[in-house]
Design a protein that fits this description.
Length: 200
């Protein structure tokens, strides 16, 4: 098991990220296969998705490295650099998307959990967003699954309390939809994603 003092955190942006793309694709497929995402991963899609962070001039990926190997990652970029399906709820409300910094996801290998990486991921991304000036709010979104979903584990503990402790507030009316193929599915389906916000 990775120990806290073995994990090294590094911010990577732009082309420097490219060498880590295989590791990041693997981590995303592995972590998002679990509840509540149930994502049937596709490496080709992951590589295309990560190009968004390589192209964005102000993006960041916070890597958790164990002996030089990426065991975790947390992504962020200006909301204006994100796809239309992410920005649509903001545009529909007439909000200035240039004031928001979007936190994409945090993924961490099981063996490296419980060592404070999640807290560090948020702190690093917030610091990165604040370094530019002009961004007023950090935001992210998380999938909403029904409580009676047949694949929900009996011992599942949602991350809501963790996010609340970080200062984030959920707006259940602020929802977009992401499409992916669930485990066992034969085609993509849309899933509701509710937004959380924090003033920077």
């Amino acid at each position: 098991m990775a120990q806290a003092d073995r994990l090294r955190f590094e911010r990577v942006s732009g082309e420097a990220l490219r060498r880590y793309v295989p590791d990041l694709a693997r981590l995303r497929i592995q972590v998002f296969r679990d509840w509540p995402y149930l994502y049937e991963g596709d490496e080709a899609y992951e590589r295309r998705y990560l190009e968004t962070y390589i192209r964005s001039k102000r993006s960041v990926v916070v890597l958790a490295l164990d002996d030089g190997r990426a065991v975790g990652a947390s992504t962020a970029l200006p909301l204006a650099d994100e796809a239309a399906y992410v920005t649509r709820p903001f545009a529909d409300r007439g909000l200035d998307i240039g004031r928001f910094f979007y936190f994409g996801e945090s993924v961490l290998d099981r063996a490296s959990r419980g060592q404070g990486a999640g807290v560090r991921f948020f702190a690093e991304r917030e610091s990165h967003a604040q370094s530019f000036g002009g961004f007023e709010t950090a935001c992210f979104c998380a999938v909403e699954r029904p409580d009676d979903h047949p694949m929900k584990p009996a011992d599942y503990v949602p991350l809501d309390a963790f996010w609340t402790r970080r200062g984030y507030v959920k707006d259940p009316a602020f929802v977009t939809r992401f499409a992916w193929r669930d485990i066992g599915g034969d085609q993509e389906t849309e899933n509701p994603m509710a937004f959380w916000f924090k003033r920077l």
